[in-house]
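Protein Record: Sequence and Backbone Structure Tokens
======================================================

Structure line: whole-number tokens from a learned vocabulary of local backbone shapes, matched to residues.

Purpose: to set a sequence beside its fold so the mapping can be learned.

___
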Amino acid sequence: VQLVESGGGLVQPGGSLTLSCAASGFTLSNYAMDWARQAPGKGLEWVSTLTPSGSAYYKDSVKGRFTISRDNAKNMLYLQLNSLKTEDTAIYYCSKGGQRGQGTQVTVSS
């Protein structure tokens, strides 16, 4: 199992980013997949889950701003981040059953 996140960067408040997670060693669509994040000096927090059936769940603070999706043909997971806030600054990880990649840094700052 390997998960490789990408797409992070520096963005101004109100901006957008699309995070990607390339999965290998398993078929992503057969599992519930999560996005989690860790802000500086804080613990890991759950952000979103996409189930095999396609149901999506979000942390309250990101509802209406973030969208989780997948591309079954490419075995990729995505997280669209819109209307970003400074408090969204964190390392973002995709996760399968607690297994995570190396993460991608999202910094929201003016």
About this structure: Residues 48 and 58 are 4 Å apart (CA to CA). The chain has no helices and eleven strands. The chain has a mean pLDDT of 97. The radius of gyration is 13 Å.
